[in-house]
Amino acid sequence: MFLSTTYELDGIEVEKYHGLVFGETVRGINIVKDIGAGLRNIVGGRASGYEDEVIEARIEIVNEMKTRAEQMGANGIIGIDFQFVAMGAGNMLMVSCSGTAVTIK
Hints:
- The chain is of the alpha+beta class and about 100 residues long.
- The protein has helices at about 30-45, 50-70, and strands at about 1-5, 15-30, 75-85, 90-105.
- The radius of gyration is 17 Å and the shape is elongated.
């Protein structure tokens, strides 16, 4: 499956546009990761627990989007865009992405 955040693909021809595809997930951050991130906020540094959640969410929704595109008969997705939103009291994370399913030569 060909994936791109752009719509213009140098040297690649789009044969057919199948339509929009989406992937989304809402993840809760557990208390241990929340405490760890709070300490990082005080002393500085990277909050690896939160980073791991974002990485896992991104992988999950891209795979979801690829599956939906394949079901439409596509072999690529272009114009992929990601959105990240904190929800609730800041301990929930919504990650979503969208793109256009296409058949490329």
